[in-house]
Amino acid sequence: MQKLGMGQAINQALREEMRRDPNVFIAGEGVGVSIHLNPMFPTHGLLEEFGPKRVKDTPVSEAAIAGLAVGAAEAGLRPVVEIMFNPFFTLASDMIVNHAAKLRYLSGGKSTFPLVVRMKSGAGIGAGCQHSHNLEAWVAHCPGLKVVMPATAADAKGLLKSAIRDDNPVIFIEHMGLYFAPMPVPEGEYLTPIGKAEVKRPGTDVTVVTWSGMLGVAMAAAEKLAQEGVEVEIVDLRTLVPLDKEAILASVAKTGRLVVLHEATRTGGFGGEVAAVVMEEGFNLLKAPLRRVTGPDIPVPASPPLERFYIPGDDQLIAAIKEIL
Amino acid sequence: MNIPEEKQKEMLWTMLLSRRFEDELAELCKIEGKIPGMTILSTGQEAVGSGACAALAPEDVIISNHRSHNHLLAKGADPNALMAEIYCKRTGCNKGKSGTLHLAVPEVNAPCTSTVVGAGPPIAVGQAFAQQYKGEQRVTVCFFGDGAAAEGSVHEAMNLAALWRLPVIFICENNVYAGAQRYEEHAPNPSMADRATAYAMPGEAVDGNDALAVYQAVRDARERALAGEGPSLIECKTYRCRGHGEADPQHYQPKEEICAWQEKCPIPRLRDDLLSQGLITPEEVRDMEARAEAVVKEAVRFAEDSPFPNPEEALEDVLVA
Ligand SMILES: Cc1ncc(C[n+]2csc(CCOP(=O)(O)OP(=O)(O)O)c2C)c(N)n1
């Protein structure tokens, strides 16, 4: 199987969908001519293949970029727009929260908004909090949007292709830390269903529910614990909305223990939602209290030791698991 | 032109210091892991920050953006504390929380550098509102790029500032590029200064490589603001000689264009001007250059010798206790 970084896998998905459907276009800051000449980046080479009609470099105007997607989607196109970094979502948020998410409802189901908003996220780049703020809980809190956060290159390809074909607005959040390491990716037509979690590692003793960049941390912790005879089952949500409750509950039914792991800050984080689902619908499955391992409630600091302190590590996950074993 | 001699020398000094500071950073960030995050420099644009800040009083406020080092040094920020922050050390002006991108130096009335493009102007409106509210004789200068002018926030800020006659000076640093986009690829009107008309405020384009021209425009705008006449927009036409950041190979920027603008470097321009008018001697220039060298060397030593913050310090400073 081909091995691609997540950025390349996204590039492949965009390329295949643009070839398949002439109504798909992309827009955003530097999606055509970028300061990065890096083939590992998601939109590399698309301008060359599809030309400036379908690959639109925009001014620095997030509200207009998101509004472009909303308007063009209703008019029958399939926009895939990019917000350069997750925190800049705030500038686009009126168009996404009050319009992409609500206009179908307001039309009584008459209109559809088949659009995708791609955003780069994740701490670890040393750029500080205005570039590294994980805001997935904000969009997940907003009915009318689907929220996708792949953790592997294959899932990124399969989920993005599904997102582009979905008739709903999909927020597609990419972790920049995953762009570069090559991972196996199926060639050609490959669709991953939106709304389905995947067990990335089977285990019997404790369930770790996670997504996006934290899958690697969960895997590292599971490897270490396996040496001590503890078998961790890792459920990668892949999609936050719609949430695959069945997959979470099935795993907790098997292990009786749950730790939710995410990079975003703790208070109001999506981990609370996962925990609430298990408390409401799987309380009797639990043999011990559940735990959350998350970023602390602080903006992401720039200084390397502070940033490392921010990002949840496998040591923290192992400690949390041991507390409830 | 009636610009005090010591102001002209101050501009030359802060430009020399800023250039030396950033040339050093350009070298340092080639060393793997030395300078965390993105390094974004203002090489060739120093006349904007240096010219503008020379026209301000210490109590005047500046709001800066991602390309901030020149603005902050010209406003009088301590080079040691800036360098240490860029190194992300505990002795940095923001204890390592900011790094190079969001340097805040309230002690010299440079309280906010936002790397969110277009975020500065509304904050400048707030600062100017407070100045007007308290009846102070102070103004706020906001530096933003030509690219930023495409953000809605910039228009909202200009409208409100003009409506309420707030003492703001909007300085659009038009350096021809916004990321990889040339000006004409992101803005339909070749004049940024023209936008002032829409908000019924004075708008002026100046040679942004001429520190004296920038000084004069800002001085005039400041006088209007202090007289209660409200905001002004000044477009400083300059050029981004280096990449957007140091990781940018500038593949889209014509080499001849870069060379042509390097010829128009604002530093020798002001220096030669002062020399030819006899306002400065060659020895004084050499002294200034040696002093810039020494200040930067000391800043690097200070940053190198400083400790990183302890990890738990990440938890401090979120809220007032
Ligand atoms: C809201 C927002 N969108 C996008 C970016 C990414 N970005 C950083 S600088 C920049 C270009 C800004 O151009 P300009 O305002 O002309 O300033 P210059 O870099 O030329 O000094 C972009 C798009 C950002 N930091 N903030």
Provide tags for this entry.
heterodimer; A: 7-stranded mixed beta sheet; about 40% helix; B: about 325 residues; alpha/beta; 6-stranded parallel beta sheet; binds thiamine diphosphate
Walk me through the structure.
The complex is a heterodimer of chains A (325) and B (321). Chain A has twelve helices and 14 strands. A seven-stranded mixed beta sheet of chain A has the order 3-2-4-5-7-6-12, with helices on both faces. Chain A has a five-stranded mixed beta sheet with strand order 9-11-10-13-14, with helices on both faces. Chain A has helices at residues 6-20, 46-50, 62-74, 89-100, 103-106, 136-140, 153-165, 215-227, 245-255, 270-282, 304-310, 314-324; strands spanning 2-4, 24-28, 55-57, 78-83, 116-121, 146-148, 170-175, 183-185, 198-201, 206-210, 232-236, 239-241, 258-265, 291-295. In chain B, helix 1 packs antiparallel against helix 2 (46-54) and helix 5 runs parallel beside helix 6 (152-163). Chain B has 321 residues and is α/β, with parallel strands linked by helices. In chain B, strand 3, helix 6 (152-163) and strand 4 (168-174) form a beta-alpha-beta unit. Chain B has helices at residues 5-28, 46-54, 69-74, 79-86, 120-133, 152-163, 183-186, 195-198, 211-226, 255-263, 266-276, 282-305; strands at residues 61-64, 112-113, 140-145, 168-174, 177-178, 181-182, 203-207, 232-237. Chain B has a six-stranded parallel beta sheet with strand order 2-1-3-4-8-7, with helices on both faces. A two-stranded antiparallel ribbon of chain B has the order 5-6. The A-B interface holds A 29-30, 33-37, 57-64, 87-88, 91, 125-131, 296-299, 301-310 and B 36-38, 88-90, 96-102, 114-118, 147-148, 150-153, 178-181, 185-187, 243-245, 247-249, 251-252, 308-315, 318. The structure holds thiamine diphosphate. Thiamine diphosphate (TPP) sits between chains B (66-67, 115-118, 145-148, 175, 177-179, 240, 244) and A (29, 60, 62, 84, 88, 91).
